[in-house]
Amino acid sequence: MIHWGIVSSGRIAAQFCQDLAYVKGCIAYGVAARDINHARAFAAQHCIEHCYEGYQAMFADPNIDVVYIATPHNFHFQNVYDALMAGKHVLCEKPVTVSVDEWLALAKLAKQKQLLLMEAMWTYFLPAMIKAKQWLYEGRIGKLKHVKVDFGYPIAFEPSGREYNPDLAGGCLLDMGIYPLAIAHYFVQAPLTELKVIADVLPNGVEDDVMMMGRCGEVKINLATSFQCKLSNTAYIIGDKGIIEIPDAFRASECSLFELDLLVDHFADNRQSLGYHYEAQEMVNLINQGKIESHVVSHQHSLTFQQLLAQVKAMIKLQ
C-alpha cells in the first residue's frame, strides 16, 4: 500500500485527495500545512489520519512514500528539493518550477536519488485527450494545420493574492497559460517558432491576459490565457479533412470529431471523478514498478514546458 503525503491544504490539494478514492493501492496517509489547524481541518474533511505542522515534519516521516505538492509556484523548487532529499517520490503541481535552471536541478537530483519525480500535468492522462490524439494519428482529420487552445477565467484583482502577487510567481501565464502551451505540445512535438505575443501587464509587473501565436513545424499555433475574462477553454485540433473539438480541454471529459460541419464521432469518458486519479494511478504504478520517470509526462516534457514559458516571458518583457 502506497502512502501519500499531501503538501498544502488548499483547493487543488482537496480536489486531488477527493480523487485518491478512485486510485488502487494507495491511501492519503498524512497532510502538512504551515498552520497545524489548517492541516487538522483538511485531515478531518478527507479522513486523513496524520497531520504535520510544517512540510519538513512530513518529509521526515518514514511511513510516507510519495508526496503531492500543491503549494504556490514559487515554493515548488524548495518543496520538491526537500522531499527528494528526504527520500520521497514526488508529484508536483504545474508548473513544477519557475525557471529552466530550477527544473534541471531537480531532475538531476531525482535521478541521483533514484526517485520518481513527475509534474502533475493531469491533462495528459485524461482519456478524452488520449482519444483525440488517437484520432489525429489515425489520420481522421487529415494533415494537421492548426492548433487553437485557450484557458481563462475572470479573477478579481487582489495584489496580495496568489494569482496577482509577483512574490508568489503570480500571473495568468504560469497559472493558466501552461495549459494551452502543454496541450499544443501534446499534439505537435516541434519547437515553437515565429512567436508573437500580445499581453496586458499590470503596474506590479504581473500579466493578466496573454495571446500567443506562432508555428510548430508546419502547424500554426494560436493560444490564449486570461484572468480578465472567461475564454472558450476549448482545444481545436484542425486538419485539412476534419476538426477535433475538446471542450474544457484542461479537464477534458469528452471530444468530438467533425468533417466540415458534420459530427462523425464522439467520445465521453463518463467518469465520476474529477480526473486527477489518472495521474495519481500512474505514480502508484510506477513506484510499484521501481521506475523513476513517466513516459507520459517525462522529464523532457517538463523541460519543454519550462522552455516554452521562458520564450513567452521573454516576449512579454520586450513589449
From TrEMBL:
Top-level lineage group: Bacteria
Domain annotation Gfo/Idh/MocA-like oxidoreductase N-terminal: ranges: 2-119
Keywords: Oxidoreductase, Signal
One Gene Ontology term of the molecular function aspect: oxidoreductase activity
Residue ranges annotated for the GFO/IDH/MocA-like oxidoreductase domain, each copy included: 131-245
Transmembrane segments: none
InterPro entries from the UniProt entry: Gfo/Idh/MocA-like_OxRdtase_N (IPR000683), Gfo/Idh/MocA_domain (IPR050984), GFO_IDH_MocA-like_dom (IPR055170), NAD(P)-bd_dom_sf (IPR036291)
Alphabetized Gene3D superfamilies for the sequence: Dihydrodipicolinate Reductase, domain 2, NAD(P)-binding Rossmann-like Domain
Assigned protein family: Belongs to the Gfo/Idh/MocA family.
Protein name: Gfo/Idh/MocA family oxidoreductase
